[in-house]
Structure formats: C-alpha cells, structure tokens
C-alpha cells in the first residue's frame, strides 16, 4: 500500500508539472523553481509534513520535497543554534542531494560529448 500511495502522490505532482509545461507559457525552469518555493511554503505552514507521512518517497523525491527539506533544515538549525541557523540550516539539510547532483553531472559530462542542438 505504501508503494501505491507514493506512486499516486509523486505521479500527481509530476502530472501537474507536465500540464503546466504543456498548457501554459511557463518555462520548465520557472515551474521547477515554483515547485521548490511551493514545497517550502507548504512546509512552513505545516502541511507538507503530513503529505510526507502519508506518501513517503512520493512526496520527498519531487522538487517540492527539496523545498520541504530546505525549510525543515532551516527550522531545525534555528531551534538548535539560533539566528545563524537561517543561513546554514538549508544547505546542511540538503548537502547530500546537492553533492549527488553535482557528482552525477560531472560523471555524465565525462561520458558524453557536448554538441550544438542544431
């Protein structure tokens, strides 16, 4: 049942993103940034944690989950070290994901040769 919940929620988030790409004039970059901001805002008001508890990876893997992780990291760091946590908490909480993305990009850049789209 956990797999179905994760598939449904993650698929719904991806469906909304695809509809925004197909039906609006928003660029994919703006949609991605919007997803991170929406995840952060939903986490700030306390809603996103309920979605994570319900759907697990279906809510944490999409970009809204990255925004949730940023907000949660800042909140935890502020509670732990105070005002300085505003600046360090988000990066500390997401460092693993950021490092993985950079490493994967580096590996792919070694495996494939860049070329013009034309």
Concise synopsis of the structure shown:
The protein is an all-alpha fold and 118 residues long.
Chain-averaged pLDDT: 92
* Low-confidence regions: none
Radius of gyration: 17 Å
Quick one: biggest sheet?
none
Estimate nothing, just give the exact number of structural domains. Answer: 1
User: Roughly what fraction of the amino acids lie in strands?
Assistant: under 5%
Per DSSP E runs of 2 or more residues, the count of β-strands stands at 0
Overall shape: globular
| Structural class category | mainly alpha
Distance between the first and last residues' Cα: 46 Å
Topology summary:
Blueprint: H1 2-23, H2 28-44, H3 48-55, H4 57-60, H5 63-81, H6 85-111
Task: Tell me what you see in this structure.
With 118 residues, this protein is mostly helical. It has one domain (2-111). 82% of the residues lie in helices and 0% in strands. The protein is built from 6 helices and no strands. Helix 2 crosses helix 5 (63-81) and helix 5 runs antiparallel to helix 6 (85-111). The model has no long low-confidence stretch (mean pLDDT 92).
What distinguishing features does this structure have?
6 helices; 118 residues; mainly alpha
